[in-house]
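Recall the central idea of this unit: under ordinary conditions, the amino acid sequence of a chain determines the structure it adopts. In this exercise we apply that idea directly, starting from the sequence alone.
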Amino acid sequence: MRTVTTWYLEQTAPGDLREAPGPEPSAGVRIVRAQVPSAEFSRFLYASVGADVEWTDRLPWPGARWQEWLERPGVETWVAYERGTPAGFMELDGASPDTSARATRPGRAVEISYFGLLPAFRGRRIGAHLLGFGAARAWDMAERWPDREPTNRVWLHTCTKDGPHALRNYQRRGFRIFAKEVAQEPAAPAANASATPASAGQGPAPAAPLVPRPDRREPSQGSRPADM
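Accordingly, the structure predicted from this sequence is:
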C-alpha cells in the first residue's frame, strides 16, 4: 500500500488567475478548442497523456459513452498544438454537478477535470501556458454557451501521483487549497515506479478540511507539472 495525498484547489474570481508567459512565437504553439466532439480524438488524448500517470478510469468506456460525455453543454476540450501536432489538452467540465462540497453561491462552477501534455512535449513551457489559458476559458465559458450563468468558481484537484511540484505549480497560477484528502491505495506496479515520484519533496501542505471523493481516485493532471 502507499499513501496518496490529494489537494483540492479553487479560484473564486477571474482576478485570481495568474497566467504564465507562453513559448516564443517561433515555437509554433497554439491552443484551439475542439468544437466537434470526437470520442476517438478525446480517447487518444486521454490515453496518450495519462499513460504514465495512472489514468485508467475512462479506458473501458465505449465510444458511445465518450460521445455522450463530450456532447453535454458546458464540456469543452482545449488542445495545445506545436506546429500542427497535438501536444496536450485540457478538459473543462461545466456540466456535471459540483461534487466538491463548495456549491454555496449563485452561478456555475467549472472543474478542470483533465489537463496534461504528451511526454515528448513536456519541459517546453507549454504546460504552464495551457494551464493559464485553459483556466481563463473556464472563467469566460458563459460567453460560448447561451443561457449559461457566468462562472463563479473554477476548481481542480491534484495529488502526489502527479509529481513533487504539482501543487506549487497550480498555486503559482492563483489556485488556493480548500481541502485535502489522504488515502491508502495499492502500490503502483514496478514498471510505473519512475512515473510516480515519491511525495517526500512536496513539503507539508496547509491544513484543510477533508472532502471524500470516492468517485475520482486517479490524478486529473498529467503534465508532470515540474516539466511544464
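Residues 114 and 220 are 5 Å apart (CA to CA).
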